Amino acid sequence: MKISFIIPSFDVGGTESSFIRMANYINYSDSQFKAELVYWFEGGELRKLIDPGVIITKLNVSNLFSLMIQLINYYNTSKPAVVHTSMYMIGNIALISRIFSSHKPKIIIGARSDFDSICEISKNFFDKFLLKQLSYFFYKKADQIVAVSEGVKEGLTKSLKLESSKVKVIYNGILTKKHRDSYSVPPNHHWFGMENICLISSIGRLSPEKGIYELVCAFKKALISNNKLRLMIIGEGKEKTRIIKYLYDNSITEYVDIIGFKDDYYSYLSNSDIFILNSYYEGMPSILVEAVSTNAKIISTNCMHGPSELLQGVPESKLIDINNEDQLVDAINKFSITKKIKREKVEHLKNFYIEESIKKYIEMFKKITAN
Fold first, then answer.
1. Phi and psi of 122, rounded to 5°?
2. Tens of pLDDT, residues 47-62
3. What structural domains and CATH numbers belong to the chain?
């Protein structure tokens, strides 16, 4: 039976990475399922991570209406047993398409971010209204909704008045053997060979909701107290130009390096002294899960949802308020003068290993296709 993962592109992101990992793993497991990745935007750094045996199908999509038409045709021709969507509005379109299709796949909606936050950042009132109204009506017709954290589940069930049983929590299968070994060779960057500096890393898409620009502003203030600080930003996105201008305007280019996306980003993370997640909202941030598997001290905003759930009981981690520069500066300064750590085993991290996550997904696939 075919499991189709619907995703707009293969650009760098937690959702994209998660879907590719699942498709790769399912395709080469002993399960009864075959994985297919369905997309419509060209390009994307992550495409090279897709295993050769995974089916890749491109749709010709220009807007939501054309996506619906394309999905109807796709359902009828490819006949997937299960369709797993990656985003809230795509979930609605997938459910509407099934109404008009002769083939009726089971549909799973992926809930990967706080629903209300996604609504709030909609481009205009109509988009926000449309997303809320469609979701309120159609999500009850989904075969299953999978949330990446208990917080995302709670927010979604409350916003859309869904039965608790409709939403299942399965943590993203993020961790692999390299995380279990918790060691990687330092990257080829001169900062990793320098003594007496405190290296901070931030890894993620350079978009406004990730708060990278605000992190750079806070970092500039922290430098006043400690000029041994260095900040390495790993990622690409539309905020890059704005951040670079700030660095030059404030003469701190020698302290901050934006190096773009790296395949071996985990080696940068695991060899950093401090990792910072400064997001305005999340679901269960993959990069934060990976950070917990390292010996880096962790600073994260207490955004909805995920960080407080993940970092509970994790030593040398600190939650700060969203968009609170003073708290961020204070946390940087305090962690920068403490000794390096060796983090003890974090028990609940076992739920984020790929084998554990895929086992739960396959159990769910079997259950919904048996009905």
1. -55, 150
2. 999 999 999 999 999 9
3. 2-173+353-370 (3.40.50.2000), 177-349 (3.40.50.2000)
